[in-house]
Write a structure and sequence with these properties.
With about 100 residues, the chain is of the alpha+beta class. It has one domain (about 5-95). It is about 30% helix and about 35% strand. The chain has three helices and four strands; from the N terminus they run ββββααα. It has helices at about 60-65, 65-80, 80-95; strands at about 5-10, 15-25, 25-35, 50-55. The protein has a four-stranded antiparallel β-sheet with strand order 1-2-3-4, with helices on one face. β1 and β2 form a beta hairpin. The longest helix has 12 residues, at about 65-80.
C-alpha cells in the first residue's frame, strides 16, 4: 500500500499530509509537514514536521476517511493551547528584545 498525499492551507501555512491507512496490518501512519514556509512551526510541532502512528481505521471512523479534515481538526485543537497562542501573538507583534 502506498501513502496518499494531500495538500492543505492552514492559517496561511501550506501543509503536506501523507497518510498510510494500513502499515503491515498493524497500524496507520500520518505525517504532516509545513512546506511553505518550509519548516514553519505548527501547533502540534515546533519543527514543522510530525509523524503520528495510530490505530487502523481511526481517521475513517472519526472523520469518514477525510484526512484533510482530520489534520485541520488536529491543528485547530492544538491552536487553542496557550503556548501556541503566545507564539502567534509574539510573531504578530514582533519581538523587541
Amino acid at each position: 500500500m502506498e501513502y496518499q498525499i494531500y495538500r492543505l492551507n492552514w492559517q496561511g501555512i501550506e501543509i503536506e499530509a501523507r497518510y498510510l491507512s494500513n502499515r503491515l496490518d498493524v497500524i496507520a501512519h500520518l505525517e504532516i509537514e509545513s512546506i511553505n514556509p518550509e519548516g514553519a512551526p505548527l501547533p502540534v510541532t515546533g519543527t514543522g514536521y510530525c509523524s503520528h502512528f495510530h490505530p487502523i481505521g481511526a481517521i475513517e471512523r472519526e472523520f469518514g476517511g477525510d484526512v484533510v479534515a482530520c489534520v485541520k481538526d488536529w491543528l485547530d485543537t492544538g491552536a487553542q493551547d496557550k503556548k501556541w497562542k503566545d507564539y502567534v501573538e509574539a510573531n504578530r507583534q514582533g519581538e523587541l528584545f
